[in-house]
Design goal:
about 70 residues
């Protein structure tokens, strides 16, 4: 049972939770820095360009976090 090393499983779960937490916090900061509320603009006003920018931001931060965690 070398594949079930619980230290590695716990480390993976911990790093995953930490990465998701950092992503959420960075998106909240991004939302606060924009002049209007992102959710209102995307849902109510159907601002597709803003949705694409928000998605690109989340992907970029996710790539940075995964690279930093993975090494």
């Amino acid at each position: 049972m070398e594949y079930l090393n619980f230290k590695l499983i716990i480390a993976s779960v911990l790093y995953s939770v930490l990465g998701i937490l950092i992503l959420v916090v960075s998106f909240i900061i991004f939302d606060k820095l924009t002049p209007k509320t992102l959710w209102k603009e995307i849902i109510d006003e159907h601002n597709t360009a803003l949705a694409i920018v928000a998605a690109a931001f989340m992907l970029a931060v996710a790539l940075i976090i995964s690279s930093a965690i993975h090494g």
